[in-house]
Write a structure and sequence with these properties.
Largest sheet: none
CATH topology: MetI-like fold
Strand content: under 5%
Structural class: mainly alpha
Number of domains: 1
Order of helices and strands: HHHHHHHHHHHHH
Radius of gyration: 24 Å
Helix content: over 70%
CATH superfamily: MetI-like
Number of strands: 0
Shape: elongated
Number of helices: 13
Length: 291
């Protein structure tokens, strides 16, 4: 039996005609760029007020810097080429740890989500470990793996593991049992059952978990680069603090924010394309009903 017929037997097929809600959604999408522009207003007002307060002497220049001084620091890092060294070191650590943590989360998440025994055996321990703060792992990882790249990547992988694991387990266990029973009756087993039933149902949660994991990877890299790093945005942060250069310190924080936002935006774009592709071939879509 085709998959579209299988799924249509488990749920009612909706109408292909666009309704009022669909038209409203399309209209809101058209208005989205205008609303997104409002997000620039508050940072712009804050920067202007910050610059004015710095020039009027309302802020202590020994503990903070003006936006123009921060721009000068960024220009200096660009001119000397140091910024690319720090960015490259941090990006390699973030994405290495993110890839490792996500891979382990997918494997354990699928096993725990599908197996009741694995769920009862592993899930309580994983939830307990999730409550440990990131900085509590630092001395333990230094003791086990030293202060080189291995400890840094493993610490980031640990942070990236939990959100994706939790999202995956929750989404798999919330799949409609009636839909699974219909699939089993029609001969879907093993990989076919996972690919045709569990993966489409879990895909939105997987991308949400991936975005949360990437966000935590950027948070954990700060703790990781406190462990004896000589390059990276975390090293730049510590260097600005120890040498009393607030412009360097704030620049590193700003770079963390920009890099985290940029990578999250890229992953959000990929997730939107993937979910759009999934909807295009959903059994309720006109494409699926035409076969």
């Amino acid at each position: 039996m085709p998959t579209s017929s299988l799924l249509r037997s488990a749920e009612q097929v909706g109408s292909s005609e666009p309704g009022p809600q669909t038209e409203a959604l399309r209209a809101s999408v058209k208005r989205r760029p205008r609303w997104n522009a409002l997000g620039v207003v508050l940072p712009a007002i804050a920067l202007i007020g910050w610059e004015v307060a710095s020039r009027l002497g309302w802020l202590d220049r020994t503990i903070t810097s003006s936006p123009t001084e921060i721009l000068a620091e960024i220009y200096h890092l660009l001119w000397t080429g140091q910024i690319w060294v720090h960015l490259w070191a941090t990006f390699v650590r973030v994405f290495s740890g993110f890839a490792l943590g996500s891979a382990v989360a997918i494997v354990l998440g699928v096993v725990t989500g599908l197996s009741q025994i694995a769920y009862r055996l592993l899930n309580p321990t994983i939830h307990a470990l999730r409550s440990v703060p990131s900085y509590a792992w630092v001395p333990l990882f230094i003791l086990w793996f030293g202060i080189f790249e291995t400890s840094k990547i493993l610490l980031i992988a640990l942070g990236a593991f939990f959100p994706l694991y939790l999202a995956l387990v929750s989404s798999i266990r919330s799949v409609d049992r009636k839909l699974v029973e219909v699939a089993l009756v029609n001969g879907f087993k093993g990989w076919n059952l996972a690919r045709k039933i569990f993966l489409p149902a879990s895909l939105p949660a997987i991308f949400v978990g991936l975005r949360q994991s990437l966000g935590l990877a950027w948070m954990f890299v700060v703790a990781a680069e406190f462990m004896g790093a000589t390059h990276g945005l975390g090293f730049l942060l510590i260097d600005g603090q120890t040498t009393g250069r607030p412009a360097t310190l704030i620049t590193s924080v700003l770079l963390f924010a920009l890099c985290g936002k940029a990578t999250d935006g890229c992953l959000a774009w990929v997730s939107e394309r993937a979910l759009h592709w999934q909807d295009a071939y959903h059994p309720n879509s006109p494409e699926a009903r035409s076969d």
